[in-house]
Write the structure tokens for this entry.
Amino acid sequence: MNYGLPFQGSKSKIAKEIIRELPRGKRLIDLFGGGFAISHCALLSGKWGSVYYNDIDPLVVDLIQRAVNGEYSYSVFKPDFITRERFNELKDKDGYIKYIWSFGNNGSDYLFGKDIEDAKEELHNYVVFDKESKILNGLVGYNSYLPYSENNPQETLFEIGHTNEATERRLYLKKILRMARKRIDLQQLQQLERLQQLERLVLYNHDYREYQYIEGDVVYCDIPYEGTHSYQGNKFNHTEFYEWAKSRPYPVYFSSYEISDKTISFIWEMQRLSTYSSQNNNVYRNEKLYLTGKTTTQCSHYIRGGKNELETK
């Protein structure tokens, strides 16, 4: 299952593992909430009474709030295709456009290359609005009528049913375009749709240092990793964060790879494929969960190919 919304650096793939390692409490504090994956998984786990999500970017907080309110349910929201011009005009004003219509959900670069933009628009309008397309017909080599329609000569390609729902059109296109190495779908919108009607959740938009601890809180921080991208366009001060975390009178858990502050120990690690490698798709990094402060929680110490138990100190 995908957790949260599509987001660069999302913890969706390892959210369950992180949630498992964090101790129980009254409230989970997701202080660098980003794409909402940890908060989403935490809410579904039932491990805490409520979840406190925070991010410094007001656009992503607003996007999540709108998704939770059900504004992206496909029954009420038919997404128009966002052109390159409209993306550049609105990316700093609208979280939906900024994160859903950007390449790799990085919030800055337009989703499609100029060479395929027209075809992607035709595909989008076919899936969402059931509009036939001459461009699409030429791309796949035959008419792109819906399955089981009277004009469809390829109904045996994919047994998907007898209705004209957008999901079925998406799956049909995914099948017939595979040989052309093209892809169009509504999966990102469906991720937003899954967030609606989540309860026991409060959303905040402030600097992490403004958080006020309440007894029973479990504080987790998915900080920008050292040596990777900047934080919301600004260089993140890791030394300042480490000093803040160590000075707290309560435990602070945070994720990273290797960190420069050697006084902080990690309590869990898991080797996983690096999402930041542009040259080698087989580069693995050790994803680690660090802890400042003391706790009696038992944590599992994972490495690729084995598992050991490690008790935190």
